[in-house]
Specification:
Elements: E1 4-8, H1 13-29, E2 32-44, E3 47-50, H2 54-70, E4 74-83, H3 87-98, E5 102-106, H4 112-118, H5 121-128, E6 133-136
Parallel strand pairs: 1-2, 1-5, 2-4, 5-6
Antiparallel strand pairs: 2-3
Helix pairs in contact: 3-5
């Protein structure tokens, strides 16, 4: 049923909990987990810059991949760059390209104030995805 699982990871507490849930599901279905992180790039009239440090993003993804492998789960990581505001679409497109049967992600990553005005990444992924999305609190 779920041969490929895309775990959208952003470093938040709920994202770490989502990794545990993805591991449980992957074990049950003998699935591979793609730990996927989107590095946002802010584009301005003066140029473009990454919102976070690429090395930190890679380290976080590598840490989760190691933990999944230690738990006996087939896993690999990927960090992709996307313009600010395009994270949900990047997640959905990656899931589609990888043939993921399930997207697992944390339910909270932004502050409540930001979610009020921007909407959460999770909410937008739920609306855009063509496969099931499991939101973990």
């Amino acid at each position: 049923m779920f041969e490929q699982i895309l775990l959208a990871a952003d470093g938040s507490t709920s994202s770490r909990k989502a990794a545990d849930v993805a591991a449980d599901i992957a074990k049950k279905y003998a699935a591979e987990v793609l730990v996927f992180h989107v590095l946002e790039r802010q584009i301005t009239e003066f140029g473009a810059y990454d919102v976070e440090q690429p090395d930190e993003a890679s380290s976080f993804v590598d840490e989760i991949v190691r933990a999944l492998k230690d738990a006996g789960v087939s896993a690999r990581g990927e960090v992709e760059t996307a313009p600010k505001g395009r994270v949900p679409r990047a997640i959905v497109e990656a899931a589609k390209e990888q043939g993921a049967g399930l997207i697992v992600m944390g339910s909270r990553s932004l502050s409540e104030w930001e979610e009020l005005f921007l909407g959460s990444v999770t909410d937008r992924v739920l609306r855009l995805a063509e496969c099931p999305v499991l939101s973990v609190r």
